[in-house]
Design brief:
It contains twelve helices and no strands. It has helices at 3-24, 26-47, 58-73, 75-88, 90-96, 101-129, 138-165, 169-175, 177-181, 199-204, 208-219, 225-253. α2 (26-47) runs parallel beside α6, α4 (75-88) packs antiparallel against α6 and α7 (138-165) crosses α8 (169-175). The longest helix is centred in the middle third of the chain and has 29 residues, at 101-129. The two termini are 26 Å apart.
């Protein structure tokens, strides 16, 4: 068997293993869907009338933000799973079995992407039931899917790196709290112009804001090149940083 075929076989096995773990713990997936739904109901029906978002229906403005919040909120399970693999010694067993190191890490990232993607589909369906009316054409919907997948892979690699760097499952869950909070400190739910000094600058120059704005433009049928280029740049940078950091931590700890 060639090296590439062996790596693909290892990846398939690791991915099936991660899916089995997810099926044994459906609470993590349920919580990743439930919390964004609760927050969307709260922002749209409780706080939405208090926000000035330029005359746009608030459900249309907030849905891309809830998508990003779903991405951020779904990373905890991945970080804990990665750290648990390291703590229980299963990684060392894989090394003895000559399992490709990249297959172990990539399987965690892909499993994280697929779990979050399932949550996002549920969120979009519920948003449509609440009155969300996107104007995107088929090509723009493909752009939405591409942007979401790119963001998921970037955050996934960063999450795996954080999980590998943690010493306990509790520390792993705590390490990803900033990723869970970033959507609230972005333009996900309010325009940055309405924020105070300091908070406005932080929101403008953090990764979730251009990604959210790109999704918002695509879904509205009016994409903008500026936010899209920033979003892609952030995703590329986070993916490279997360991948290199994860590989280094994996090698160091095994």
């Amino acid at each position: 068997m060639s090296a590439m075929a062996a790596s693909l076989a290892d990846f398939s096995t690791m991915l099936q293993r991660n899916f089995r773990h997810t099926l044994r713990n459906p609470t993590a997936l349920f919580n990743a869907v439930l919390f964004p739904i609760v927050m969307m109901l709260m922002f749209v029906h409780v706080f939405g009338g208090s926000f000035d978002v330029g005359g746009v229906d608030y459900i249309d403005y907030a849905t891309p933000g809830v998508i990003m919040m779903t991405i951020g909120y779904g990373v905890s399970a991945t970080a804990i799973a990665v750290q648990s693999d390291m703590a229980t010694g299963i990684i060392n067993r894989f090394r003895v079995m000559d399992v490709s190191p990249s297959s172990v890490l990539v399987a965690h990232v892909v499993a994280s992407v697929l779990r979050s993607l399932a949550s996002i589909v549920c969120i979009v369906l519920i948003a449509l039931a609440m009155g969300f009316r996107p104007d995107a054409n088929p090509l723009q919907w493909l752009g939405v899917l591409g942007m979401v997948l790119f963001a998921l892979f970037a955050i996934g690699w960063l999450t795996v790196a954080l999980g590998l760097g943690a010493k306990t499952p509790e520390n792993a869950g705590f390490a990803v709290v900033p990723l869970m909070m970033l959507p609230f400190l972005s333009n996900a739910f309010v325009q940055t112009d309405n924020m105070g000094a300091g908070a406005r600058q932080f929101a403008q120059y953090q990764p979730f804001s251009p990604i959210t704005e790109t999704l918002r433009g695509l879904l509205a049928g009016d994409p903008s090149a500026g936010p899209a280029m920033q979003a892609v740049g952030w995703c590329v940078g986070l993916t490279l940083f997360g991948f290199l950091r994860a590989r280094a931590k994996y090698t160091q700890r095994t």
